[in-house]
Amino acid sequence: MRLSLLSSVVLFLFSSCATTTLTSTWYDAQYSGKKALRDVLVIAVIKDNTGRRLYEDGFVKKLAESGINGIQSYTLEDSDIDPTRVAVEKAIADAGAHFVLITRHLGTDTKQHYRPPEPVSVFADPLYSRYYRYYPLAYREVYYTPGYSYSVTTVSIEANLYDAKTERIIWSAQSTSVDPKITQNYIEDLINVFSMDLQEKGLL
Fold first, then answer.
1. Backbone angles phi, psi at 175, to 5 degrees
2. N or C: fewer beta carbons within 10 Å in the chain?
3. Alpha-carbon distance 53 to 46, whole Å?
4. What is the CB neighbour count within 10 angstroms for residue 28?
């Protein structure tokens, strides 16, 4: 069995959303402010190779902006990492990594909503110098916009950062993206949200 997700997870990497926010975040305070991160192995748990590369390349680039060396897991000789401790340890050793960032898709939820008709006030000719013009202005006709159904799609992503030496988790965050659109921009939005939280926690 290989480290992968269902094919539907491709949506995760090729989505752009109107709103991407963190729903939860945690970190180990003993790492905060020390700028301890170095040689971070970035693993995107995604079946689609193109999406995996885009995400890992983007995060490595973001780490480089803070002077931190990042290693994309897809660049390793044995890049198709089995979901076992031995395989992950080998990937860490091959990368020469001191930290590991693992990102995965938590789920996609689509809900249907209905917006009922709403009243709209409409005034007639605004010129009321004559009664036949003023009366339509005074007489308010109420119209209703038609009701309609719409769907809201929510994509949830989780990222965990581990100390490779102690094997302990030092940072974790979950994000929610609302109404995704199919565009590569979502990758950059997601990376920015996660990296900003890492900076706020004093880890970058």
1. -120, 155
2. N
3. 9
4. 16
Determine phi and psi for 36, rounding to 5 degrees.
-80, -15
Q: What is the pTM of this model?
A: 0.74
DSSP 3-state of 173: strand
Q: Quick check: 129 and 137 in contact, CB under 8 A?
A: no
Q: Which residues pair with residue 109 across a beta bridge?
A: 154
What does the pLDDT profile of the chain (204 residues) look like in tens digits?
444 433 344 444 444 445 889 999 999 999 988 777 899 999 999 888 888 999 999 999 999 999 999 999 999 999 999 999 999 999 999 999 999 999 999 988 888 888 887 766 555 555 556 666 666 655 555 556 677 787 888 889 999 999 999 999 999 999 998 876 656 788 899 999 999 999 999 998
Check if the beta carbon of residue 82 is closer than 8 Å to that of residue 2: yes
* 163 touches 1 (CB < 8 A): no
∠ Cα 126 127 129 (to 5°): 145
Which domains are seen in the chain, by residue range?
7-107+154-200 (3.40.50.800)
